Predict the 3D structure of the following.
Amino acid sequence: MKLKFNFNFLFIALICLLMIQTVSAENRVTNGDFETGDLTGWDVSTSDYGKVEVKGEAAHSGSYGCELYAPRWEWAKIAQMIDLTGVDYITFYFKADGYNPQYGNFEVYIGSDKVYEHLGASDWCYVEIDVSGYTGDQTLWFRANGGNVDYPGDYYVYLDDIIAEAAQDFKNVTFYFIDDSTGEYLQNVWLNYSIDGELYNATFNSGDSITVVNGSSIEIYEAKKYGFVSELEEGGYCLFYTITDDTTIEIHFHPAEGKWHYIELYFQDAETGSLLDDVHLTAKIEYQEETQIIDGIYDYYKTIWVLENSTVLITKAEREGYESELEKEGISLVFIDI
């Protein structure tokens, strides 16, 4: 079957869809940004007149931060047990001020080890503490001290954005889809799969990769490509992998049985009759319950092979400086039961 498109004036826009899977690092500190609006996750202790509050005025970012208030001779402290296994750094922001703040000090401990101290006032300050030498559950605590002097005064420490991220080991998972009849790699394969139980579905080309955390479990439920039958469909099974290294996953296909036909689409200037290059064509092929999308830039013509009784829907034909009959009339072209 041959078909000609007539073009007049047209504007072209090419949109690429990029699917990216990301896995963020784990912050071992519970409520380290205090965005719960309270002290969830933290143990609080103070002297008689010390005080700990979560309030907006103490925020470095977001809506809330933690205020540690310590008058002279007093103190205030928050603490939390965290697992430091695999954690290289603890980071946080703090600010200190008050009346005669030069007599106060701010301390950070891991267990009984003092790992940071600041004397007196400070504008917002970013602190990074090396904790790579620690492992297992450790008590992280922050303390404001009003100062043991007879001068009047008080000391405020504002604390926010406390982070202890575990260094994660990532692995690449690369997919290859093989046509067993020719040994060639296939493109545009639709996968339905999960990573650690979270469901995804997307279209991949052979050689495409995703990145997952070491130890992740991947289960592939479906692998579909128009005109082919995958080993999963034929065998009625799923594929399961536990990823502990960079991994290549091969899925095998064979051509579906049935007669094949083709449609030839020609892109023609309506005034001169000459064929046009750089035409952006989008089409959808439907066969039984399978769908294939064709979307690309083609010169002069495009041949589409389809299984007998397929339906083809041409939704877009665009070229810079021209308008196709599809755009002009606001239509799509449909071919049923080819």
Observations:
- The chain has two domains: 1-23+168-338, 43-166.
